[in-house]
Write a structure and sequence with these properties.
This protein is α/β, with parallel strands linked by helices. 37% of the residues lie in helices and 28% in strands. The protein has helices spanning 40-48, 70-76, 93-101, 107-117, 134-147, 164-180, 192-198, 224-236; strands spanning 2-11, 14-24, 28-33, 53-60, 63-64, 78-81, 152-156, 184-188, 199-206, 209-215. The strands form two sheets. The chain has a six-stranded mixed beta sheet, with helices on both faces. The protein has a four-stranded antiparallel beta sheet with strand order 2-1-4-5, covered by helices on one side. The structure holds adenosine-5'-triphosphate and magnesium ion. The site of magnesium ion (MG) has 4 residues, from helix 1. It comes from Rhodococcus rhodnii LMG 5362.
Length: 237
C-alpha cells in the first residue's frame, strides 16, 4: 500500500501541492483527475522522489520513504511512467527493453512477458523508439516500467494524445495487469470514463488540493454513470 499523508511539495519556494493525502492499495487502480496545471504531475513526481517533499510523509508498504532517493524507491517496487511517452529515442525498441532487463536474472523472460502484454511491440523491435508513433512509444514506456517487476505502477496520463484504438489497447492492458493481482496502479488520467471505470477510488485535484474523492467503478455497488456525473460536477467548479 502507498500512503501519502498531508504532502506539501513544489519547486523551490513555489509550493504546488498543498497538503495532499491519498492511499493506493496493493491491488487495483486509484485515479487522480484534475485540470491542466492542478498539480497532478508534481504529485506523482513527489511520490517517486523527483520533487522534494516540504512536509508530510510518503509511506510504501509501511515504510517511510519520504527521504529516499528515486532509485531507492524503484528498488522498493515503485515504477513511474512520466507524461509524454519518454524512451531513449536513438535506441531501438529491443535496446530500450534490454537496458532495463540487463542485470536482472530473468531478463529474457521479463522481456517476453511484456511482449505478450503488448504484442504490437513485437514487430517493432528493431525500430528506433524515436520513430515509433505516440501510442507505440507509450506502450514501450509502460513495458519498460513493467520489466522492473513493480509492486506499484505510477502512470501519468498514459492515454494523452493517443488515437482511440491504441487508447483502448492500453486500457485493456492496464486492466489485465490489475486483474492478475499483486499490482497497485496510481493513474493520472484526463480520460475520465476509463479512469473511473477502472478505479477502486478516485481523487479530484484542484490547485494542489484534493477537492473530491469517492469510490470508482471497480468498487462494490457503484453506479458508474452517477460517479462520472459527480466527478464532472466537481471538476467544473
Ligand atoms: N519544473 C517546474 N518549476 C516550476 N514550476 C513548475 C514546474 N513544473 C510545473 N510547475 C508548475 O506547477 C503547477 C502544476 O504543474 P503540473 O505539471 O504538476 O500540473 P498537471 O496537473 O500535471 O498539469 P497537466 O494536466 O497539464 O499535465 C503549474 O502551475 C506549473 O506551472
Ligand atoms: Mg501533468
Amino acid at each position: 500500500m502507498l500512503e501519502l499523508s498531508d504532502v506539501r511539495a513544489g519547486y523551490g519556494r513555489s509550493e504546488v501541492i498543498h497538503g495532499v493525502s491519498l492511499t493506493v492499495p496493493s491491488d487495483g487502480v486509484v485515479a487522480v483527475m484534475g485540470h491542466n496545471g492542478a498539480g497532478k504531475t508534481t504529485l506523482l513526481r513527489a511520490t517517486v522522489g523527483l520533487v522534494k517533499t516540504n512536509s508530510g510523509t510518503v509511506r510504501f508498504e509501511g515504510e517511510d520513504i519520504t527521504s529516499l532517493r528515486p532509485s531507492a524507491r524503484v528498488a522498493r517496487g515503485l515504477a513511474y511512467v512520466p507524461q509524454g511517452q519518454q524512451s531513449f529515442g536513438q535506441l531501438t525498441t529491443q535496446e530500450n527493453l534490454q537496458v532495463v532487463a540487463d542485470g536482472r536474472k530473468n531478463g529474457r523472460a521479463l522481456i517476453k512477458e511484456v511482449l505478450d502484454l503488448f504484442p504490437a511491440l513485437t514487430s517493432l523491435m528493431n525500430r528506433r523508439a524515436g520513430l515509433l508513433s505516440g501510442g507505440q512509444r507509450q506502450q514501450l514506456a509502460i513495458a519498460r516500467a513493467l520489466i522492473t517487476s513493480p509492486k506499484m505502477l505510477i502512470l501519468d496520463e498514459p492515454t494523452e494524445g493517443i488515437q482511440p484504438s491504441v487508447v483502448a489497447e492500453i486500457e485493456r492492458t492496464i486492466l489485465e495487469l490489475t486483474r492478475r493481482g499483486g499490482l497497485g496502479v496510481l493513474l493520472v488520467e484526463q480520460h475520465i470514463g476509463f479512469a473511473l471505470e477502472s478505479a477502486e477510488r478516485y481523487y479530484v485535484l484542484e490547485a494542489g488540493r484534493v477537492t473530491s474523492t469517492g469510490s470508482g467503478g471497480a468498487g462494490a455497488d457503484v453506479d458508474i454513470d452517477s460517479v462520472v456525473s459527480d466527478v464532472r460536477a466537481a471538476m467544473t467548479i
